[in-house]
Amino acid sequence: xxxxxxxxxxxxxxxxxxxxxxxxxxxxxxxxxxxxxxxxxxxxxxxxxxxxxxxxxxxxxxxxxxxxxxxxxxxxxxxxxxxxxxxxxxxxxxxxxxxxxxxxxxxxxxxxxxxxxxxxxxxxxxxxxxxxxxxxxxxxxxxxxxxxxxxxxxxxxxxxxxxxxxxxxxxxxxxxxxxxxxxxxxxxxxxxxxxxxxxxxxxxxxxxxxxxxxxxxxxxxxxxxxxxxxxxxxxxxxxxxxxxxxxxxxxxxxxxxxxxxxxxxxxxxxxxxxxxxxxxxxxxxxxxxxxxxxxxxxxxxxxxxxxxxxxxxxxxxxxxxxxxxxxxxxxxxxxxxxxxxxxxxxxxxxxxxxxxxxxxxxxxxxxxxxxxxxxxxxxxxxxxxxxxxxxxxxxxxxxxxxxxxxxxxxxxxxxxxxxxxxxx
Length: 424
Ligand SMILES: [Zn+2]
What we know:
Elements: H1 2-10, H2 23-41, E1 47-48, E2 51-52, H3 60-94, H4 102-117, H5 121-136, H6 139-146, H7 152-161, H8 167-181, H9 186-200, H10 204-214, E3 217-222, E4 228-233, H11 236-252, H12 263-279, H13 283-287, H14 296-302, H15 313-323, E5 339-342, E6 361-364, H16 366-372, E7 378-381, E8 387-390, E9 396-399
Helix pairs in contact: 1-2, 3-4, 3-5, 3-6, 4-5, 4-16, 7-9, 8-9
Bound molecules: zinc ion.
């Protein structure tokens, strides 16, 4: 009843005066609201986790209480998910496949986590890393997440900032930080943790900087509308110096009245001109890549080297053009950086498969190539370039070859209904 009254009252723009339409309903609503809060004060309304149960009577304040409760449930659910992932990983490490060490097992686990949650390799790596960090080094922070006291963002902040601390140092940090973590915002908590890390390990900042510097990299990220971002991850002073130099050169350049390029486009063009000149990049040649669509004769010609273990350069180029990137679900490592892998291991004794032919080769990055060789993994390929991956838990996903142009197909595509064929 209270809810229907709220619906009626919510349609009123201003508080009605005596005699106005809706005045009576408004008065009743106000009376109920007062009665409700009096009941809360008198302790007559049920409390859940210290907050009033407002499911049947949604006042403004009650809605926020309901929101808070939901947030706590989200944290608990995140904790449950991370606990399951951590336990899965710990079991795999505790009982490794014969001949495989922890690093190798973690590779397989990471790929399985990606499969299970339909996430990219990078996201699977982050999820697994967080789960293991919490389980091994921050057990009380983990417990706070599982109980719903701390949200995932706060927990991540603690995990990120304590990356270089050992178990004992993490325990000391939890002593200081956890009692205050609930009442701080994420940013304030991050600052507190950082300050504590410096107290515990004065060398921490230097170590973090060094390890961050080792991660400097250059990579390309595909974007929509035929664009891509070329990213340089650098020490801040280097990045700033390069950017400032380009900027000041652009500012000093004279532009004609017809030059309508935005400042960002001029910066980009200037850097491209410099790089093209320095490396002799032929942009026309880049545009003229091999077509991924081959005729039967072309494929037959490529397959002439079927009995040689090493594919010809022409075959490698054709596979790279077809696959564009690693063919493991969710992995976008460019084909040019991938191994050209025999889907069925090269074996001339096999009547079918096992040859160096177009339908038995694929671009697979080194990481997923290693995963493929772990026990319990299986890969097959059909005549249309569909790759069917099976993980040790029996999950099967197919990746279709990327189209010559246009959108990529879904990255996790079950081949048929009931593809989750568990072997038990
Ligand atoms: Zn890969």
